[in-house]
Specification:
Elements lengths: L13 H9 L3 E6 L36 H15 L4 E6 L9 H12 L5 E8 L6 H10 L4 E9 L3 H6 L6 H13 L3 E8 L6 H12 L5 E6 L2 E2 L3 H7 L8 H14 L5 E4 L9 E3 L6 H15 L11
């Protein structure tokens, strides 16, 4: 049984991993590098994935009109008041953050790493079809200079859902990208979404089982968000699908954690939807309530991460 089982949570949290590694509180600071996406600019499609609002995934990070140092300091100044000795990870979150000419990538990444002396790592969120060979070589170099993590959106392994979401990539694309990144020993975090339209609980568990067979180091799990201005919102308002209840979400996540490989770091089990854009589920706005309900249910079932892995 892993050491983290005896902590507050019965799964391998990012907070535990970072404290063990850096012996300090570490915060990720979301930065907006004003990237776009091949699913928005017409390279693959227009409009983006159907769950994105019309403003794009920048809803979840800093203001693209501000400089990186302004974006960073706005967050750091708040954090440092409570945790003055904390460290930071620069996190490029909005849109596809490797989808740009190499010169732009170098400029932004290196600027981000120089923003503060206590920045210990760089996280880059992107699509599995947006890492060119030259970009990969540069990421290989960056991996020797800092604690580099690439976050890849998988969302689901099921082709019918991938098509419905207008992802414009598939599971094979994702798996191949993971192999390329791991060939350079670059850490990979996978994003998945629970409650995607027409997916059953069994389908969501199958996504975890697939992930278990990949060389990935972390996972992010959250519920589907229906946002104003998204194509998904019109489908929802036409009653084409239903949103998971809190109890359903908790049940699914507990079972997912129980079969998740126990060396995979759980970066999150609940998201942070933009309050002004969220239509449903409104329960997701109470993040700590969601996390507490999951913790309570795991303890009730006497589960911990990976307990049912060998039974899959």
């Amino acid at each position: 049984m892993k050491n983290y089982i005896n902590t507050q949570h019965s799964y391998y949290t990012l907070d535990y991993y970072l404290k063990e590694k850096y012996h300090s509180k570490v915060f990720k600071v979301a930065l907006n590098g004003n990237f776009t996406c091949p699913n928005r600019d017409g390279t693959k499609a227009y409009g983006g994935c159907i769950f994105c609002s019309d403003s794009g995934s920048g809803d979840f990070s800093g203001n693209k009109e501000d400089s990186l140092i302004t974006q960073f300091n706005e967050v750091k100044d708040i954090i440092s008041k409570k945790w003055p000795n904390s460290k930071y990870i620069a996190y490029f979150q909005a849109n596809s953050n490797t989808y740009a000419p190499l010169d732009k990538l170098k400029s932004l990444y290196e600027e981000a790493l120089s923003l503060h002396k206590d920045i210990v790592g760089l996280d880059i969120a992107t699509r599995p079809d947006c890492i060119s060979d030259e970009c990969l070589e540069y990421l290989d170099y960056l991996n020797t200079k800092t604690d580099l993590t690439i976050e890849l959106g998988l969302q689901t392994i099921h082709s019918s859902t991938q098509k419905y979401l207008n992802l414009c990539y598939n599971t094979e694309d994702f798996d191949n990208c993971v192999k390329r990144l791991r060939s350079k020993n670059i850490n990979v975090v996978v994003h998945i979404i629970n409650g995607l339209p027409f997916e059953t609980k069994s389908m969501m568990l199958d996504t975890i089982k697939h992930i278990n067979n990949l060389d990935i180091q972390g996972i992010k799990i959250h519920s589907l968000f229906v946002l104003k201005g998204s194509v998904l919102a019109s489908h929802f308002l036409n009653n084409e699908f239903k949103i998971l209840s809190l109890n359903q979400y908790v049940d699914i996540v507990c079972d997912q954690l129980s079969i998740l490989r126990d060396d995979i770091v759980v970066h999150r089990i609940s998201g942070d939807p933009p309050k002004d854009l969220l239509i449903e589920p409104t329960w997701s706005l109470k993040k700590f309530v969601v996390m507490n309900e999951i913790d309570k249910e795991i303890k009730k079932r006497m589960y911990y991460q990976g307990i049912n892995n060998k039974r899959c």
